[in-house]
Design a protein that fits this description.
Elements lengths: L7 E5 L4 H12 L3 E6 L2 H15 L3 E5 L5 H15 L4 E4 L14 H29 L2 E6 L11 H21 L4 E8 L5 H4 L3 H8 L10 H12 L10 E4 L11
Parallel strand pairs: 1-2, 1-4, 2-3, 4-5, 5-6, 6-7
């Protein structure tokens, strides 16, 4: 498919992991991919790889999504040089897991600043450019954990905030040809999951109705679906990509 030919797709945290998988998918479908990442080295390597594989325009920018002014300048620069921003993927995020009583002020702020505030800053900067053209797709990343998860109060608060932010963005931009949706991944094969010991991993996978973990490509597929022109009548939803884990069935 070539759903994103001539489109400009901005991906935060696109230098590695799920962000890189999504950047790859959009480039494969003809998009000009703009990767924003606090780690310029990984972002540049990813952009170089996309250009080499697909021959499509791709660029990397070192940007800290917690810096409101830097985000605004970056988004305005992209829109000015490229003439448009069609898709914004709010993927940047970090974890600093601990029990509530052991979460430091700095770890609380860091997680919310990157995942939630960063998504807000990027959306706020991109929406005016999308409104000008009466078209846009915003896809932000929540998590299956947004419903609550032991030892992740900061992460859960950020990801639950993404749900509320997404629904509000959807309402405020509904008449502008812009959609705003969220993706809530489950157990996906990432370096973090791979670092778990075998016993802990098996325990988690046993809770998934499909009894398997997901792949980064599963997330990229979901993002491409929600960001595609054909998904224009879908807005304000949270799409679980979790093998059924979020169903919460009491019968196993």
């Amino acid at each position: 498919m070539n759903r994103f030919i001539s489109q400009v797709v901005v991906v935060t945290g696109g230098g590695q992991g799920l962000g890189a998988a999504m950047a790859h998918r959009f480039a494969a479908e003809g998009a000009t991919v703009i990767i924003g990442d606090v780690d310029l080295h990984t972002a540049t390597a990813q952009a170089d790889s996309l250009r080499a594989e697909f021959g499509a325009p791709a660029e990397a920018v070192g940007v800290d999504v917690t810096d409101s002014a830097a985000v605004g300048a970056w988004i305005d620069d992209v829109a000015g040089r490229r003439g448009r921003i069609d898709v914004l993927i709010n993927n940047a995020g970090i974890i600093r897991d601990n029990r509530v009583t052991d979460i430091s002020d700095s770890d609380w702020r860091a997680v919310l600043d990157v995942s939630l505030s960063g998504s807000f800053y990027c959306a706020r900067a991109a929406i005016p450019h999308m409104r000008t053209r009466k078209y846009g797709r915003i896809v932000s990343f929540s998590s299956m954990s947004w419903r609550g998860n032991f030892g992740q109060a900061n992460y859960v608060a950020a990801k639950a905030g993404i749900v509320g932010l997404t629904r509000t963005l959807a309402l405020e931009t509904a008449r502008d040809g812009i959609t705003a949706n969220a993706i809530a991944p489950g157990l996906i094969e990432t370096p973090m999951l791979a670092s778990m010991n075998a016993a802990a991993r098996e325990k988690l996978v046993a809770k998934v109705p499909q009894r398997v973990t997901g792949q980064p490509a599963d997330i990229a597929e979901a993002a491409a679906f929600l960001a595609a022109p054909a998904a224009g009548y879908i807005t304000g939803i949270v799409l679980d990509v979790d093998g059924g884990l979020g169903i919460g069935s009491s019968i196993r």
